[in-house]
Amino acid sequence: MLEAEPANFLKPKSGSSETPNSQVRSLWAPGTSLARSARINPSDRSKTFQRHRRRAELGLRPSEMAVRAVNLSIFTISLGADVAMNVTANYSDGPSIAQGSTGTWWVSGTVTVFDSVQANFFCTLWDGTTVISSGAALLGANVPGTISLSGFLATPVGNLKISCRDATNTTGLIKFNTCGNSKDSTISASRIQ
Q1: Regarding beta strands 145-154 and 104-114, do their DSSP bridges make them parallel or antiparallel, or are they unpaired?
Q2: Which comes out higher in pLDDT, residue 60 or 36?
Q3: Which residue(s) pair with 156 in the sheet?
Q4: Same domain, 89 and 123
Q5: Domain containing residue 101
Q6: Is this structure's pTM higher than 0.85?
């Protein structure tokens, strides 16, 4: 029944007449979790046995097997008002998330930019220090456009945010409600580790 070397707790105690096979068979005794799972879904009986066998080979008793809980954080923030980009050399902060400084994060966001005259827009997804992603757009007068950015970052040193600048004029805006849904400039972050 067992082809591999049994784990220590499956080896017979000195002076015992039990064999590893009889111990494994006792795992399948009526009323045990293996017997119940086999009764519920007979096609998984072999898989369940193999899983318990692998655990036994590692020397793990059922009471020593632990389940690790993972608490993943998910944030989504949208701008509540337009943000002016009134200095061509400086980035203005758009949507921002205060996620803390631990873990690895997947961040994704979109901003809608606008100017009443033709303009060059540059946007950066970052934590204030490390650039995760960046993009640019050249838009005509009174034509809104979107820039989407995404990427991973481990242990951010500041808030995750999208910052933009209008490199041509001092009249550019990061819009919050061009389409009427109040989600035109949004950032989302998920802690993945």
Answers
A1: antiparallel
A2: 60
A3: none
A4: yes
A5: 74-191
A6: no
